[in-house]
Amino acid sequence: MAYENIIAEKKGAVGVITLNRPKALNALSAGLIADLGAALDDFESDAEIGCILVTGSEKAFAAGADIKEMAGFSYMDAYKADFITRGWERLAQCRKPVIAAVAGYALGGGCEIAMMCDFILAADTAKFGQPEITIGTIPGAGGTQRLTRFVGKSKAMEMCLTGRMMDAEEAERAGLVSRIIPAAELMDEAMKTAERIAGMSKPAVMMAKESVNRAYETTLAEGVRFERRLFHSTFATADQKEGMAAFIEKRKPAFRDE
Ligand code: HXC
């Protein structure tokens, strides 16, 4: 399907979403967020898609919410539209795995979008920041919450209070990104990672994702109980039988997503 602000492509079992407002460094306008939501709906309902990849350009993953669009907002505009929750959280609610492949700037809402993905692969050119404070506001799509969970209070607080950016190395050291990849290889490597995930049993992948996410929302004891229930339920799947039989027979598994 064709969109105005993104490019959505099906590459085998991987759904690739490229944020595409190059003149505005992929600033996240209402139109872009609507397109992103529609593409996610599409890929989530497509049984062939096993992993989704979200990326931007070489210069910017996304430089934040569209400042020109929101500059004139009144409190009532923001409140009535439930700005920014509606639409943006669609990404965080995705049941299929979503990888962010970040090169260049991931600032403000751009950093928040990346953090809503399941993990971040960063080019060595990536720069992360929550610069909202420099324009008289604060993060509004989970930045103060998710960044703090990723990197701890001290670094999150410093970034949110000063607007300082983190480069890829600092982001990896702090646990914000899973890996740094040379910029020229980012998309190849991200595709390989996405294809690897898409080749697993889809229900098992969704359960693993759900279980890891529980770690953010509950106590250790509750989380471990939740994990055990899902783990037990995998023994009711054909894919568990196939996966273990394939290991014993020294062959590749042929998962049926059942
Ligand atoms: C609208 C933006 C934009 C943004 C860049 N542009 N960021 N337009 N919203 N967030 C536009 C510029 O106006 C300019 O358009 C063009 O993109 C190129 O940007 P430059 O500034 O000329 O590029 P450069 O000098 O390379 O600087 C790059 C940059 C800078 C450091 C990323 O653009 C910047 O600081 N951007 C704003 C970052 C920011 O504050 N983000 C947080 C937004 S608030 P023209 O037409 O002039 O050429 C936010 C709140 C989230 O995200 C709340 C919940 C969602």
From TrEMBL:
Keywords: Fatty acid metabolism, Isomerase, Lipid metabolism, Lyase. It catalyses: a 4-saturated-(3S)-3-hydroxyacyl-CoA = a (3E)-enoyl-CoA + H2O; a (3S)-3-hydroxyacyl-CoA = a (2E)-enoyl-CoA + H2O. PROSITE patterns: ENOYL_COA_HYDRATASE (PS00166). GO terms for molecular function: enoyl-CoA hydratase activity; isomerase activity. Coiled coil: none annotated. Could possibly oxidize fatty acids using specific components. The keyword Endoplasmic reticulum does not apply. This is enoyl-CoA hydratase. It is an enzyme of class 4 (lyase). It comes from the Bacteria. Its EC number is 4.2.1.17. GO terms for biological process: fatty acid beta-oxidation. CDD domains: crotonase-like. NCBIfam families: PRK05862.1. Belongs to the enoyl-CoA hydratase/isomerase family.
